[in-house]
Write a structure and sequence with these properties.
Helix content is 27%, strand content 41%. It starts with a helix and ends in a 15-residue tail after the last strand. The chain is α+β, with helices and mostly antiparallel strands. The chain has an 11-stranded antiparallel beta sheet, with no helix packed on it. The chain has a single domain (35-184), classed as Lipoprotein localisation LolA/LolB/LppX (outer membrane lipoprotein receptor (LolB), chain A).
Length: 190
């Protein structure tokens, strides 16, 4: 009887140790993501964006907090710019001005907000290479994706209150580059 008890005690001990190792590995990934993200002042990247099946490409620069400049590889010369308060989407023939706080980018471009969200959320493994954090803010569902090996932010997916799905994938990421301040000045309407 004593042998059986010792056998089960050892088995339980091994299970507890294994569980702790898994939790530590998970905590380590989250800590690495948080530490890397904390040290980012700005990022520049190529992007591929899919909005309800329509794919567009280009390059962007984000400066925290809440500034973004994106130039799309389109013949209509589309750009997207936020100065931290407003968001403009401009093409050769159109000009749209939005309060940034009414868009999902308000959350995505707020590094401190994202860090607090990540700290409080459980991550989800997406395949072998990616970590996902999902939350809802101002009626927008937001999914952030990080590379499991580099801990870089590699994209996001948003679903707004109208159920529009927007997926943005980042590549060729450069961190903490010297930026021109004029980059985030809102363009004038034609």
């Amino acid at each position: 009887m004593l042998e059986k008890e010792m056998y089960y005690s050892k088995k339980i001990f091994v299970i507890i140790i294994f569980t702790c190792l898994i939790n530590n590995a998970s905590a380590s990934i989250k800590e690495n993501i948080i530490n890397k993200f904390k040290n980012i002042e700005n990022i520049s990247f190529q992007f591929e964006q899919n909005i309800n099946g329509k794919v567009e490409n280009g390059n962007c620069t984000i400066e925290y907090p809440k500034k973004i400049y994106c130039k799309y590889d389109l013949s209509n010369q589309k750009i997207l710019v936020s100065n931290g308060k407003s968001l403009v989407i401009k093409t050769l023939s159109s000009y749209y001005l939005y309060p940034l706080e009414k868009t999902p980018l308000n959350s995505i471009l707020n590094k401190d907000f994202l860090l607090n969200k990540i700290k409080s959320l459980n991550e989800r493994n997406v395949g072998e290479n990616f970590i996902n954090y999902k939350f809802i803010e101002n009626e927008n569902e937001i999914n952030l994706f990080f590379d499991k090996k580099t801990f870089n932010l590699i994209g996001w997916q948003t679903i707004d209150l109208y159920q529009n799905i927007s997926i943005t994938y980042l590549s060729s990421i450069k961190r903490n580059q010297k930026l021109e301040k004029e980059l985030f000045v809102l363009p004038k309407q034609n």
